[in-house]
Predict the 3D structure of the following.
Amino acid sequence: MESYDRLVRIVEEVAEEVRKAEGGNKAAGTRVRKAMQDVKKAAQELRVGILDARGSDSSG
């Protein structure tokens, strides 16, 4: 599913920034927080997609 792939990609891309933020890099922390907003959005899109797929299966 495209939404899942996007979610995974965002998490993988932010991994290095998380390590930098843990080390005290404030700019990296800002980038991580922005990425977490993207994760939230992607997770919601995935959730809706799963619900839509489940709903269309039972309507047959």
